[in-house]
Amino acid sequence: MSMTYRGTVALVTGASAGLGVEFARQWAERGADLVLVARRLDRLEELARDLEKRYDIRATPIAADLALPGAGAALHAELEGRGIRVHTLINNAGFGSHGALLEQDPAQVDRMIQLNVAAVAGLTRAFLPDLVADGRGALVTLASVAAYQPTPAMAVYGATKAFVLSFTEAVAYETRRSPLRVLAVSPGPTSTEFFDVVGSRDAMVGKVATAEQVVTTARRALERGTTPPSVVAGLGNRLSALASGLAPRRLALTVAGRALKA
Q1: Catalytic residue among 157, 173, 207, 261
Q2: Is the pTM of this model over 0.70?
Q3: What pLDDT, in 10s, does the model give residues 127-162?
Q4: Catalytic residue among 5, 55, 148, 161, which?
Q5: N or C end of the chain: which has fewer CB within 10 A?
């Protein structure tokens, strides 16, 4: 069964900016209805109106704090109550920070782990039965090139993305006998609000991609005859991820620490 857009519903988290907006746009352009989730309702409503007008689809904005425990199950229950069945889940919400762990705000560290790890696992578990049962859509998660080696100065962020990559590849294998397409996409630095939240440009290592380039890479991987469990966006990033895997662990750690100005 091939991937289908028209007649399906795609849920996009972190849909108020950056990659989330671009995921929503590309799926809407191909005829998918949308559920747009983030904390900033005003942005979601504006995006929903624009996409509905441009692409003649239905977009449902929902304000939710996915960093709260149980957010995935609560969102699934809300959509079920509204009669909305999701066919594609795009786990895009997440954030990072730069600086030594010793200097990080403990509350921010907890929130990062909750949003980048627990929310991804919780949302996936809540929606996966529906995704597998229908099989026309996909499960997409946002990992990062930071997932491929330790990341001093971004220790927690890199570790959360390593979880996302490993988790998604494992789920892809578990569901391999179903028609559902499961993909982790790992971008490098991308021109979004991410680095505004990080608060430092020291984490911007390598060529900066556009959101359109990253999302197009993910979509094309999903549309292959056989979808890979993961893909790295950008040739330079692919080479970097490959080199990190081949290099001795200690060397990869040292190179990453110098690059990130740890």
Answers
A1: 157
A2: yes
A3: 999 999 999 999 999 999 999 999 999 999 999 999
A4: 161
A5: N
